[in-house]
């Protein structure tokens, strides 16, 4: 959505690491090659790829068994995790004293909650909107992420399709205010 979620995730990891805390960075379906968190401003950090089979609690317990301290997890693209992963995050906080910071979109291209985001909202101790101001082409606050195919806003299809924000991408996403999202108006790009 070009609002700085992954940048904030990497900043969170950096700030905690500077204070001597040890953490793990995880991601799922990042647009880059290889298991890493990448940002559109050029930052990148190695990450553990979250698959359906991965149990986040086992990830932490395995690190502990190898003598690696884990104080926190930074979970990028959390909207693409499955519901079990979200419950595992809550378990890590409640029963293992591991801090968990999850970053992701709330809604998909149809403006419907991702199942993982809904579960995060149900269980999270705190939910905060990213403070980076994201604007629609008209200057209003950008609230929704439209999927654009062949120059048109589409409202049907698989919930998760990887794209980018550049005009040349086969599938791209454009942030719009509610008015222009509902109208399918991409402005004069």
UniProtKB/TrEMBL annotation:
<keyword id="KW-0547">Nucleotide-binding</keyword>
<dbReference type="GO" id="GO:0004797">
    <property type="term" value="F:thymidine kinase activity"/>
</dbReference>
<feature type="binding site">
    <location>
        <position position="173"/>
    </location>
    <ligand>
        <name>substrate</name>
    </ligand>
</feature>
<dbReference type="GO" id="GO:0005524">
    <property type="term" value="F:ATP binding"/>
</dbReference>
<keyword id="KW-0418">Kinase</keyword>
<protein>
    <recommendedName>
        <fullName>Thymidine kinase</fullName>
        <ecNumber>2.7.1.21</ecNumber>
    </recommendedName>
</protein>
<keyword id="KW-0067">ATP-binding</keyword>
<keyword id="KW-0237">DNA synthesis</keyword>
<dbReference type="GO" id="GO:0071897">
    <property type="term" value="P:DNA biosynthetic process"/>
</dbReference>
<comment type="similarity">
    <text>Belongs to the thymidine kinase family.</text>
</comment>
<dbReference type="InterPro" id="IPR027417">
    <property type="entry name" value="P-loop_NTPase"/>
</dbReference>
<keyword id="KW-0808">Transferase</keyword>
<dbReference type="Pfam" id="PF00265">
    <property type="entry name" value="TK"/>
</dbReference>
<dbReference type="InterPro" id="IPR001267">
    <property type="entry name" value="Thymidine_kinase"/>
</dbReference>
<feature type="binding site">
    <location>
        <begin position="160"/>
        <end position="163"/>
    </location>
    <ligand>
        <name>substrate</name>
    </ligand>
</feature>
<dbReference type="GO" id="GO:0046104">
    <property type="term" value="P:thymidine metabolic process"/>
</dbReference>
<feature type="active site" description="Proton acceptor">
    <location>
        <position position="77"/>
    </location>
</feature>
<dbReference type="GO" id="GO:0005829">
    <property type="term" value="C:cytosol"/>
</dbReference>
């Amino acid at each position: 959505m070009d609002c700085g979620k992954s940048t904030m995730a990497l900043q969170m990891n950096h700030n905690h690491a500077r204070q001597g805390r040890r953490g793990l960075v995880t991601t799922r379906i990042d647009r880059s090659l290889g298991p890493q968190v990448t940002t559109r401003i050029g930052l990148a950090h190695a990450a553990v790829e979250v698959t359906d089979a991965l149990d986040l609690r086992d990830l932490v317990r395995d690190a502990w068994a190898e003598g690696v301290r884990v104080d926190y997890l930074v979970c990028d693209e959390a909207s693409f995790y499955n519901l079990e992963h979200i419950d595992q995050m809550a378990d890590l906080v409640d029963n293992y004293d591991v801090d968990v910071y999850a970053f992701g979109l709330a809604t998909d291209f149809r403006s419907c909650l991702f199942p993982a985001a809904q579960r995060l909202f149900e269980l999270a101790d705190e939910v905060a909107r990213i403070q980076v101001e994201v604007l629609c082409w008209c200057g209003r606050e950008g609230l929704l992420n439209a999927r654009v195919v062949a120059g048109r806003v589409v409202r049907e299809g698989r919930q998760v399709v990887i794209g980018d924000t550049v005009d040349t991408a086969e599938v791209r996403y454009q942030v719009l205010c509610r008015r222009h999202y509902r109208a399918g108006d991409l402005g004069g790009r």
